[in-house]
Amino acid sequence: MSPRWEPNPNIRRGRTVTYTLHAHLVFTPKYRRGPFTDEILRRCEEIMRDVCADFETELVEFNGERDHVHLLVHYPPKVAISRLVGSLKGVSARRLRQEFPAHIRKYLRGDHFWSPSYFAASCGGPPLSIIKEYIENQKRPA
Fold first, then answer.
1. CATH number at residue 29
2. SUPFAM superfamilies of this UniProt entry (predicted)?
3. Handedness of CA 60, 24, 83, 77 (dihedral sign)
């Protein structure tokens, strides 16, 4: 009996594309002065889930510490990571400042909540060495 084939839930399909794109993102607040409490992290996650939904992306995982947050997002190829990051940081900064003004003011000076820098890494799937080997083995016979 052959094993039953089950579709991979991470592989998505569009009209003209089949994809599975994941990115690990890390954001730090300006001056890396830890403004995050458990309550603020929970609210930050809710805000970022809403932004991801607007971009037709999925926030697969979210967590953080006092001075940074980690996100794992599953996104379609039509989404530019830089635009997604800009929106995630912009919307969350505005809402967190509105909802926690006294607390945020204690930790950050000026108008900026997030550092302008961020970390982004593509992730998921097989290691690059396996992909290289697979492509190498696709050579046509002479």
1. 3.30.70.1290
2. Transposase IS200-like (SSF143422)
3. negative
The Cα 75–Cα 56 span in angstroms is 7
Nearest by Cα to 88 from 69, 102, 101? 69
With respect to residue 12, please indicate whether it lies within any of the assigned structural domains: no
Which domain covers residue 76, as residue numbers?
17-136
pLDDT in tens, 78-104: 999 999 999 999 999 999 999 999 999
- As given in the structure block, the two tokens for residue 109 are 């000076």
> What is the CA 33 to chain-centroid distance, rounded?
22
Specify if 4 maps to a domain. no
Within a domain: 99: yes
Active site residues per annotation? 134
pLDDT 10s digits, 36-71: 999 999 999 999 999 999 999 999 999 999 999 999
Is 11 among the domain residues?
Answer: no
Domain count, the chain: 1
pLDDT at residue 140, rounded to an integer: 64
